[in-house]
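User: Hello, can you help with two protein structures?

Assistant: Certainly.
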Amino acid sequence: MQKFFRVVQYVATGILILLTVLVITQVLLRNLFNRGFVWSEEMARFLLLSMVFMATPVVFFAEGHVRIDFLPSRLKGIWHKTLEIVVVAISLIFFAAFIVSFFDLMSGVGDVPSPSLNLPNRFYYLSGLIGAVLSIVAGIARLFGPSEKERQ
């Protein structure tokens, strides 16, 4: 499972590199030549969404999200494990609700095209759906697999 999320991390990193190149190119074109791509800001928004939604399951799997550990650091043994299970279960419920909301939203506006790229919203926000599904996979792997400490 670790190798799978490593690949997802590479995808997110590749998207970040594309985003960086696009934004720097756009800034240089606008400042040096007083010209720019009409579609670049929309593409940058799309790449930013894609990067965030691809990185989310990687960080969730690695237990790397920002957390307040006042209570977990004081719990030991079964109580600590129980709290971790509850937190992951709540996260899984959130991601499942996100997926349901995605389909609900896309049933109404999924075919509406974006202004400059002319991409349907269904495609534009598809990375959110993929990220939520991968986050559920990451959560299940966290529940039934070794913890990050055990994997190291």
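That covers the first. Now for the second protein you mentioned:
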Amino acid sequence: MKLGTIEEEAARCRKAFEGVEVGALVWHCHHDRLIEVLSEPAENRIEYILTYKPEDERALRLRLFRPVRHKFRSWVKIHAAWLKAHAKLRRADAALWEEYAEWEKAVAEWEEADREEIAIAHAEECPDCPWDGKTIFPPTATTTSLATLIMNVIE
């Protein structure tokens, strides 16, 4: 199979998905699935491929990711049920994220209220911990020295 450039394959892929809606059947959305239901806009998957997949896989992934044109009789029968279930799943997912945001807010409020006690407990229970208030991977003396060296050269 002769592939075009990544840009050419992306353009062909986008064209193939014009007018295709979530819930359509697609070929090769993922490398390990032959056929599946498009669960989000095709553009999301195209952008994911272009951004996160290894460069040497992108053109092939984009070439093969296509809407299914064949009308499977059995799919026609279950498609409406799938769309209904998918809509219900999306509503539940939205509700879950709303609850998660509330939980995160409550945890942040607790951490703020008990910041001093948390710091004392952490110091006692994790005595060799490199936590700097933001990460367990703070700048080291080596990186600090390198940064200082660079700053001295720039100045």
